[in-house]
Write a structure and sequence with these properties.
homodimer, alpha/beta, Rossmann fold, 6-phosphogluconate dehydrogenase C-terminal fold, Alpha-Beta Plaits, six-stranded parallel β-sheet, three-stranded mixed β-sheet, globular
């Protein structure tokens, strides 16, 4: 049997410390361990819990131990923690699941008490100083129960995800890896491959002056840490390769169709493949869940030109708030060369008229 | 000789009407023509100018005529307008340039007075009702002077771009097309190819529950109108095919390297290609100009959890504004399943401390 009163977090990085902070806020007792003792002390100083004793002297210290370390280290970390019998139940948070599970099995770990997990949350920063107790609030937390798992272990790890404010989603390790390959790892490399073209020889800086918001969106994630991403991709290489290969084939077919159209004289050949792909793209985007977990209502976008100075956005939001309008999303468009910006406010269609009224009353010109 | 006092806009869609509105605000006299007379009347009712007489009766009506129509129609539109001698100078706004220029040359148009152009601005909506006088504010406006162009014609079209608040950038038509293929058309299809995978057979809705902000960014533009994009891609097929082919080759090579790594037993083979591509991706993103036309300063991001209710963002921006802090950008992260959101505020690094102070004073918990 296991509860969740006492939790040992092994690995006090961004994710581990964020879990610790979330649990501390709920009154759980948290122990912190890290192979770098200064990191564990920093996390402790941030209010994430107490520094744990050497794990060899920590038998039975926790109900649940969380292995918050990169995928390559999970199996070895689990074997050691179980050898020290530090907890009744074990989980991890690595972003790939099949590899650590296979390695844990090969290492002879006790799989009755190890429930693999993966909270879908992160930041562009790393380390305990970047941790936040609310990091998992409303995010999906994938749980990958194994056939060997004891029910009490699955329950304890589910409670852990819930205690962090996350939404647990059960999925087997192989399927998990296929899903994150599709929604995270492959899209990352697709973004990278497009961004890499911008750094190609013969691309002058002036060409980038023609860049709009679309290019910025498509390539934003390509700014991520190459070393970290090389690790992630290597750890999920098979499923990522499968998605990338399909994307590459589609792009190659599109390129061939376009090249044929460009070379044609007289009546241009058809664009059936490209047209079909554009439609499939529409269908794919429509499947991504929006705010609050549901299908996004078709939000209406209202654009407002704002001066690029302190207080201007405040005035705008005040005006909307006073009119009782909930702004669902906002995007500020950059205006190269000018000290103004365009704020794109997303609201429910039913709120558009009231928002336009409010903007007009507040002195922002609107077009009806 | 030509001034810019009297402008005839032929094609009262989003771009044409926006140009008209911008010119009207500056006191220029604007005539509006459209093959659909109701569209021209609507634009006129919106304050964009007066409905022009039939072009056959409009000789000398304008200093500059703007052909605001899709690329396929530009050459024919130009030939007709020049036959009617409606203006001293002509320009267009189509998003591809080599094709209309070639067609205009083939049609025997007067190239002394036709200066091709392309304002880099747009909206996801179409038609005169979506037009805005500030659409071009701070945006790049590509001008593609031809060797046949008279200097006064180039000056007049340059003045037109400036009058709309845009930043003119001179480039020859072929180079223009290569550049927009790289920064707009190819990225669009890359986004589409990734998004299309999400609609593939065997992708359950649950897989999309693992989607984060990265996937949303990469695939956002793939929601665009397929019919419109098929046209755009066909009109710039050669340059787009070249970029796509290179991206496809990189993705295919990455897929092969990952597949080899996945299939390897014992020591994994190297990931030299993928690692190199990740680095190139970083370099590419760094070349995209940021706010105000310059290289973006490294902005710091501060994350604040906000309740999803009217007035909350206003209170947050008030607090920042009162502290004299200029928020450079904002992104609201969705929290599926929970009525809270995370506002990511981008500020200059020098403003972070003051922002954290202000947030804390305003009752938002911050982590230092």
């Amino acid at each position: 049997m296991s509860g969740l009163e006492r939790v040992l977090v092994i690995g006090a990085g961004l994710i581990g410390t964020s879990i610790a902070l979330a649990l501390r806020e709920r009154g759980h007792q948290v122990w912190l361990a890290d192979r770098d003792s200064a990191t564990a002390r920093l996390a402790s100083d941030l209010g994430a819990g107490m520094v744990a004793p050497d794990l060899r002297d920590a038998k039975g210290i926790a109900d649940v131990a969380v292995l918050a370390m990169p995928p390559d280290f999970v199996a070895a970390g689990l074997a050691f923690a179980q050898e020290c019998a530090v907890a009744d139940v074990y989980t991890d948070v690595a972003s790939v699941k099949a590899m650590p599970v296979r390695q844990a099995r090969e290492a002879g770990c006790d799989l009755e008490t190890y429930v693999p997990g993966h909270p879908l949350a992160g930041r562009e920063k790393r380390g305990p100083a970047a941790a936040r107790s609310d990091l998992f609030l409303g995010r999906t937390w994938a749980l990958c129960p194994l056939r060997e798992n004891a029910p009490f272990a699955v329950d304890a790890v589910t409670d852990l995800a819930l205690a962090c404010g996350a939404v647990p989603l059960r999925v087997d390790p192989r399927t998990h890896d296929e899903w994150v390959a599709l929604v995270s790892h492959a899209p990352h490399l697709v973004s990278v491959a497009m961004a890499a073209r911008l750094a190609g020889p013969g691309v002058p800086a002036q060409a980038l002056q023609l860049a709009g918001q679309g290019l910025r969106d498509v390539t934003r994630v390509a700014a991520g840490d190459p070393a970290l991403w090389a690790q992630i991709l290597a750890g999920n290489a098979g499923p990522v390769a499968e998605v990338l290969s399909a994307v590459a084939a589609d792009l190659d077919a599109a390129a061939r169709e376009l090249a044929a159209a460009a070379g044609a004289t007289g009546a241009a050949p058809g664009m059936a493949m490209v047209t079909g792909l554009l439609g499939q793209g529409n269908a794919g985007v429509a499947r991504i869940p929006g705010k609050h977990g549901g299908t996004p209502p078709e939000l209406a976008v209202v654009q407002v030109v704002i001066a690029d100075k302190p207080g201007e956005l405040a005035r705008l939001f005040n005006t909307a708030g006073e009119a009782g309008i909930n702004i669902e999303d906002i995007r500020i468009e950059h205006s190269p060369g000018l000290p103004v910006g365009v704020a794109e406010l997303s609201v429910r269609p039913s709120a558009v008229a009231a928002l336009l009224d409010a903007m007009e009353a507040g002195g922002w010109p609107v077009r009806r």
